[in-house]
Amino acid sequence: MSAIWLTWEIQRRNRSLARAVGARLHELNLAGGRVSRYLRLIPRTFAIVRREQPRVIYYQNPSIVLAALLASMKFLRLTRARLVGDFHNAGVNPPAARWLVPWIVRRTDLVIVSNRNLEKPIESFGGRAMSIPDPIPSFDVEAPSMDAGSFEVLFICSWASDEPIVEVFNAALIVAERAPGIVFAITGRPKLERVGWMDPVPANVCLTGFLSEHDFERRLLGASVVLDLTTRDDCMVCGAYEATSAGVPMVLSDNAPTRAYFRKGALFTDNSAASIAQEILNAHAHHAELKRDVMDLKGELIIEEKSRLAELAARVA
């Protein structure tokens, strides 16, 4: 069965799932303004579909424009391919054009979501849904050598509106008073003013700036704890899968799907500064136990992943 995977951004989930289902990945990630990008992305996407004539098209939503384009091609019978949409939280509940989602869903043969809570709205639109968490990734880089006694909290951050960044800075100040040896590293291009942080960056915080994939993976493998947070309901963050693969304990936002899936090796916070600080201190105090637990979790999730992917293959066939 010929299959392609279309996405208009670069994300690890696209790569790992495309590899898992045997689909040829097309990452169309272009620079420029929104309108300029769409004017180039739409004809390129159309050309790929017409050239390859796949039997199955997997696509990522967001972009809702990509989703609407492929649903329109299906509706107009410009492709006979089965459509499988990988809907992220912002694809199920987009900030704009939400009225389009039910129409897209009804023209997509199967919608993949990251957890069962997101299946319900898809089914309410008349669609077929299946939850597929991110595959556990693998890394080709070697872990860096770390100084004995060092303890780094890696906050995987894109400086997006759903990340409680100010609360993390305040948590770092709390931790500095109680455990001065704990340091924080925050990834991504800093946007301090945009998130509302006007004070000096705490002395125990390092802003890494943008990291290449290689440098990010080395930083991840050398971390003592991964901190990955979101204020979105039912959102399972990519950094949790990455931390599980790396065998690094996690502090994650406390929502039901995340707590159920990352059931070992993780601590959970309500995203307040006091709670984040306390869970970092708890992770420091119980680090060895959490590391054992996260490795147990990794083995369990890999087994579950194989079962889900086999079910997906059966449903798409």
Feature tags:
13 helices, globular, Rossmann fold, single chain, 317 residues, 2 domains, 6-stranded parallel β-sheet, alpha/beta
Task: Detail the topology: elements first, then pairings.
Blueprint: E1 3-7, H1 12-21, E2 24-27, H2 34-52, E3 56-61, H3 64-75, E4 82-87, H4 89-92, H5 100-106, E5 110-113, H6 119-124, E6 129-131, E7 151-155, H7 165-178, E8 182-187, H8 192-195, E9 205-209, H9 213-222, E10 225-228, H10 238-246, E11 250-253, H11 256-261, E12 266-269, H12 273-285, H13 287-316
Parallel strand pairs: 1-2, 1-3, 3-4, 4-5, 5-6, 7-8, 7-10, 8-9, 10-11, 11-12
Give your account of this protein's structure.
The protein is of the alpha/beta class and 317 residues long. The protein has 2 domains: 3-132, Glycogen Phosphorylase B (Rossmann fold); 151-300, Glycogen Phosphorylase B (Rossmann fold), CATH 3.40.50. Helix content is 45%, strand content 18%. The protein has helices spanning 12-21, 34-52, 64-75, 89-92, 100-106, 119-124, 165-178, 192-195, 213-222, 238-246, 256-261, 273-285, 287-316; strands at residues 3-7, 24-27, 56-61, 82-87, 110-113, 129-131, 151-155, 182-187, 205-209, 225-228, 250-253, 266-269. It has a 6-stranded parallel beta sheet, sandwiched between helices. Helix 11 (256-261) links the parallel strand 11 and strand 12. Helix 2 packs across helix 3. It is globular, with a radius of gyration of 20 Å. The termini are close together. The model has no long low-confidence stretch (mean pLDDT 95).
